[in-house]
Design goal:
heterodimer, A: 204 residues, alpha+beta, Gyrase A, domain 2, 2 domains, 18% strand, rod-shaped, B: 82 residues, mainly alpha, 2 helices
Chain lengths: 204, 82
């Protein structure tokens, strides 16, 4: 019954559940565990940021290095081409120099031989050959045994003439070529079946 | 079900889940960054070698050009002598 107090049930109000009108003490809104975990999250985020920054910068550097590597490779290729061209050109020039030197050497050899022959002709004129050719000697009747010449054109010839006809023929031969050969002396000696002669001639 | 799970998860568990997810992402990023840094290192080493080769080849090309000039001068001299 409301408003009244039952004497018999004096203690019955104690059985009524207590209703607290004061708010119970609240638990702490942020526990230390949560704070610690949040700090871990912050640290992770910072680390992730650094990693991302390194990643982006590394990627950029890798792209730049790739471009530079391509550039260097193309320059290397050009250098190799230039070197190959230079080697080829050096080989060509070396061959050209060798050809020129060989040609010059051959010319020098020919010139040397020509000069040598010319010098021999100047030093040792073939007077004997000329004498024989002019006199038409060394025939069956007249054979020349020795001829001695000197550079002044003096010729001493000795030989054998078979028969008087040959001796007179030799004299007439000297006369016929008197404009070339000047007979200075002619010495005749009798031999067995022939005559030896010794002539001294001066070439005009 | 997600609502039920959401109701049951305490704040600690939620933050821990965030820690794990962010940690996994960070680890993935670390691996990615390590790969890129290794690639950069390899490229730098290759570039150093190639630059050395290029320097050596440039020097060789210079000496060869000098040799070529000498040969051309020698050829001219030989031709003049002949």
């Amino acid at each position: 019954m409301l408003g009244g107090r039952d004497e018999g049930s004096e203690d019955s109000w104690r059985a009524v559940p207590k209703i607290s009108v004061v708010a119970p003490p609240r638990e702490r809104a942020v526990k230390p565990t949560v704070v610690l975990l949040v700090l871990v999250i912050v640290a992770e985020l910072l680390f992730a940021q650094f990693q991302y920054r390194d990643y982006t910068s590394g990627k950029t550097a890798a792209e730049e290095l790739t471009v530079e590597a391509d550039d260097i490779a193309s320059r290397l290729s050009l250098e190799e081409g230039d070197m190959a061209n230079s080697e080829t050109r050096i080989g060509e020039i070396t061959a050209e120099i060798k050809a020129v030197i060989d040609g010059a050497s051959a010319q020098d050899t020919a010139r040397s031989e020509l000069s040598k022959t010319y010098d021999e002709l100047l030093i040792r004129p073939n007077w004997a050959g000329a004498f024989e050719a002019i006199l038409l000697a060394n025939s069956d009747e007249i054979s020349i045994k020795s001829i001695r010449t000197d550079p002044s054109g003096k010729i001493e010839a000795s030989g054998t003439a078979t028969g008087i006809t040959a001796i007179s023929g030799l004299q007439s031969q000297f006369r016929s070529v008197a404009d070339i050969l000047n007979l200075i002396s002619l010495q005749l000696d009798k031999a067995e079946g022939s005559q030896t002669f010794r002539a001294e001639i001066q070439i005009r | 079900m997600l609502d039920q799970l959401n109701d049951r998860l305490s704040i600690e568990m939620r933050v821990l889940a965030a820690v794990l997810i962010i940690g996994a992402g960070t680890a993935f990023l670390f691996q990615l960054n390590s790969g890129v840094q290794g690639e950069v290192q390899v490229l730098q080493d290759d570039q150093a070698l190639v630059v050395d080769d290029l320097a050596a080849m440039s020097f060789e090309a210079g000496s060869m050009a000098e040799k070529l000039a000498e040969k051309e001068a020698e050829l001219e001299s030989v031709c003049a002598d002949v």
